[in-house]
Specification:
156 residues; mainly alpha; de novo design (two linked rop proteins); 2 domains; 4 helices
């Protein structure tokens, strides 16, 4: 990872997942009303969960096992989304061309997730996690400080 990424929103894999979720959302608007609480709801939820799990993984990247676990959850949601795409095609709600295009996007996302899971250390920040005293709830519990700044609580 050569560039400094400061937010999960800057990750290319997140951007691709978000674009795919929006494309799926748009496609489901054309589906029959009787699918609203079934297939439509399921595919929208799983597609949205990919990006949500990436965001959670990013927040937990200080802890490699938790980071990889959340990335694995994102990959599981991605696989579920692929299942629902196949179901939508079988039900006649999506054309083979639409499914192939979306599966290509999901495959790209899956490869990026796999790469992140295989080398989680490249995403772990080089800093010390500073936690304020538990009685001080004004500060977030995951404030990062450079190693050289000491271990005291963050300034008020």
């Amino acid at each position: 990872m050569s560039e400094q990424i400061r937010s999960f929103q800057e990750l290319r894999v997140y951007q691709e997942a978000f674009a795919a979720q929006q494309e799926i959302f748009s496609a489901t608007k054309r589906w029959p009303a009787e699918e609203r609480y079934a297939l439509t709801n399921q595919i929208r939820r799983s597609a949205r969960s990919v990006g949500a799990n990436l965001a959670e993984a990013w927040a937990k990247r200080r802890y490699p096992m938790n980071f990889v676990s959340k990335l694995s959850d994102a990959d599981g949601e991605l696989q579920e989304t692929e299942h629902w795409l196949a179901t939508a095609e079988a039900c006649g709600h999506l054309s083979a061309t639409e499914v192939k295009e979306l599966q290509g996007r999901l495959n790209s996302i899956g490869k990026k997730l796999g790469a992140m899971m295989s080398k989680p250390e490249t995403f772990i920040p080089r800093a010390v996690v500073v936690r304020p005293p538990s009685s001080d709830l004004r500060h977030p519990t995951s404030v990062l400080r450079p190693l050289s700044s000491g271990l005291g609580p963050p300034p008020a």
